C-alpha cells in the first residue's frame, strides 16, 4: 500500500477546511492507507473508512492505519463499487464523501459513479470531495468538490 499524491492533496484540502469538520459524518471510499479519512477523524469528524470487500488486505490496511493513529474506534467497511450490499444499505447519512484517486481505472468509473450516485440519492445534501490524477505523459493532480 502506498500514499498516492492525490491523498496528500485531499488531506491538505481537509486541513485547510479543518474548522468545518468537527461533528461531520464522513465516508472515505477506496481508502487504502486512509490518509484523508484519518486526518478528518483527527480534526473531529465522525469517519467511516471503506475499501473493496473483495480485497480483505486493503481493509486490514485501513484497520492498521486506525491503530497506528490511535483511532481504533473508526469503523472500516467493505464496499464493492457498483454493488448494493447490506453494508452499503446500512451506512448512515453522510455529510461528505471522500474519494482520493479512485478514478484511475476507466473500466471502474461506471461502478464508482453508481455507488456515489446511490449515496447521493440516499442523502442529496452530501458533498463529494475528490482528487484524481490524470495519467498521461504529463501527470497532473486535480481537486474537485461537488
From TrEMBL:
Keyword Transport on entry: no
GO CC, any one term: nucleus
Gene3D superfamilies: Vaccinia Virus protein VP39
Source taxon at top rank: Eukaryota
Recorded family membership: Belongs to the methyltransferase superfamily. METTL23 family.
Protein name from the UniProt record: Methyltransferase 23, arginine
InterPro entries: Methyltransf_16 (IPR019410), SAM-dependent_MTases_sf (IPR029063)
UniProt gene name: METTL23
Keywords: Methyltransferase, S-adenosyl-L-methionine, Transferase
GO biological process: methylation
GO MF terms held by the record: methyltransferase activity
PANTHER family xrefs: HEPATOCELLULAR CARCINOMA-ASSOCIATED ANTIGEN, HISTONE-ARGININE METHYLTRANSFERASE METTL23
Amino acid at each position: 500500500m502506498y500514499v498516492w499524491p492525490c491523498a496528500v492533496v485531499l488531506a491538505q484540502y481537509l486541513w485547510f477546511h479543518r474548522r468545518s469538520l468537527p461533528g461531520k459524518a464522513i465516508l472515505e471510499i477506496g481508502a487504502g492507507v486512509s490518509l484523508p479519512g484519518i486526518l478528518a477523524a483527527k480534526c473531529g469528524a465522525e469517519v467511516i473508512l471503506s475499501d473493496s470487500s473483495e480485497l480483505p488486505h486493503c481493509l486490514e490496511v485501513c484497520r492498521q492505519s486506525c491503530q497506528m493513529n490511535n483511532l481504533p474506534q473508526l469503523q472500516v467497511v467493505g464496499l464493492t463499487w457498483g454493488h448494493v450490499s447490506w453494508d452499503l444499505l446500512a451506512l448512515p447519512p453522510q455529510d461528505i464523501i471522500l474519494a482520493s484517486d479512485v478514478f484511475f481505472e476507466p473500466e471502474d468509473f461506471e461502478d464508482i459513479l453508481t455507488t456515489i450516485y446511490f449515496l447521493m440519492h440516499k442523502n442529496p445534501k452530501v458533498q463529494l470531495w475528490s482528487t484524481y490524477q490524470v495519467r498521461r505523459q504529463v501527470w497532473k493532480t486535480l481537486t474537485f468538490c461537488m
